[in-house]
Amino acid sequence: MIGIFLQGITLGLSTGLFCLTSCALVFVPLLISQKRGARQNLGLVAELAAGRFAAYMIFGGTAGALGKQLEGIAYQRMLGGMMVVLALLMLGYAVSRCYPRWTACHWARLDRIRYPLLFGFITGINPCPPFLLALSYALELGGAIMGTILFLGFFLGTSLYLLLLLPAGWLGRWENVNIIGRITAALAGVFFLFTGLTRIGISF
């Protein structure tokens, strides 16, 4: 059991930088789109980490319990659906920051959504190569506990790289950078929307 935990940490440390790069399109716009202090940026990164932790624990346990049953077209469509949700959240975040006084934003309560936590959760099951590598190993382990332990180690290994995001938050004190962050969030939302719909099976 300890060996599986250590393998998860090793996998996270060896692939964490790639993991961070693949999620940068989500995390960086979030950090630079608002003016925040150092403590607020640290809290935001902590929320991202908490969301990823929840995703890894749920998905790791599920992968270990279901094994090979989790693979296939249904799994790909599920990931596509999660990507569509991520896209809609990013678009909602961009709108709520660009038009905070817009009546529709208040009606939909877009400004009250815990975006960092949700972004962390959904990107936690992002089908990037490091995640798929950890998933393939969890599928072979058999058992929810073993899968959870593996992903716990994977979470700890990859989370160290989240601290590299903090300098990006420092850029958010400039209004022009805030605008760039909001525009980037909207564009990323459109990109993830089309990608997710394609994974579900809707072609354009």
Structure description:
The protein has 204 residues and is mainly α. It is 79% helix and 0% strand. The chain has helices spanning 2-32, 38-66, 73-98, 103-108, 115-124, 129-141, 144-159, 166-170, 175-200. The protein is globular, with a radius of gyration of 17 Å. The chain starts with a helix and ends with a helix. Mean pLDDT is 76; it is low at 103-108.
Look at the structure and give the mean pLDDT. 76
Q: What kind of assembly state do the chains in view correspond to?
A: single chain
**Strand tally, please?**
0
Structural category is mainly alpha
- Counting structural domains, the number is 1
What is the straight-line distance between the termini?
A: 46 Å
Shape: globular
Q: How many helix segments?
A: 9
Please give a quick description of this structure.
This protein is mainly alpha-helical and 204 residues long. The chain has one domain. It has nine helices and no strands.
Which helices and strands occur, and which strands form pairs?
Blueprint: H1 2-32, H2 38-66, H3 73-98, H4 103-108, H5 115-124, H6 129-141, H7 144-159, H8 166-170, H9 175-200
